[in-house]
Design a protein that fits this description.
InterPro entries: HotDog_dom_sf, MC_hydratase, MCH/BMMD. This is Hydratase. GO terms for molecular function: lyase activity. With 167 residues, the protein is of the alpha+beta class. It has one domain (18-159): Hotdog Thioesterase (Thiol Ester Dehydrase, Chain A). The protein has 4 helices and 7 strands. The protein has helices at residues 39-48, 54-57, 59-63, 74-86, and strands at residues 2-8, 11-16, 28-36, 93-104, 113-125, 132-143, 148-159. The longest helix has 13 residues, at 74-86. The protein is elongated and about 60 Å long. The relative contact order is 0.22. The mean pLDDT is 93.
């Protein structure tokens, strides 16, 4: 969530993310813009992470598979969807506390555009950190045609208003 906060007079500063107080259980954030994944993205990520599986980098091999084409590396898909959610979910986070139940529910191919949304499942104050709280969200990702490709639950430690690093 990008917005501008007044610094006084006619001066404004961009503000990125949400404070703990800005989350409400049940809210759904649609993460935009979407992200189209290119063949270059897929090859570079696969090689960077030393994942040389032929389904990600050998088009001739992938053409013989049930998919008939290269699959986007699922690590890249997770990273992109997570990144898409930062603006709304963890822009004010002190730390990510974990991901669970990561489900890859559909194939992603080069040229697909991903969209994502996150629903706030839980919000509570930290028991050991009085200026922070814990937020849990369920993030879902879809391709351009609306077909689901992934979902996961993520928990983050979020600053309260007036206690973030940019305050």
């Amino acid at each position: 969530m990008m917005r501008a906060e007044s610094m006084g007079g006619q001066r404004y500063r961009a503000s990125y993310g949400r404070y703990l107080e800005d989350f409400t259980v049940g809210d759904i954030y649609e993460h935009r813009p979407g992200r189209t994944i290119t063949e270059s993205d897929n090859i570079q990520f696969s090689l960077l992470t030393m994942n040389f599986h032929p389904m990600h980098c050998d088009a001739a091999h992938a053409a013989k598979s049930e998919f008939g084409q290269l699959l986007v590396n699922s690590g890249l898909t997770v990273a992109i969807v997570l990144g898409m959610s930062v603006n709304d979910v963890s822009g004010k986070a002190i730390a990510n506390l974990g991901w669970k139940e990561i489900k890859l529910t559909g194939p992603v191919f080069c040229g697909d555009t991903l969209y994502a949304e996150s629903e706030v499942l839980d919000k509570r104050e930290s028991k050991s950190r009085p200026t922070q709280g814990i937020v849990t969200v369920h993030t879902r990702a879809f391709k351009q045609d609306g077909s689901p490709v992934m979902d996961f639950v993520r928990t983050a430690l979020i600053a309260k208003r007036g206690h973030g690093t940019g305050d």
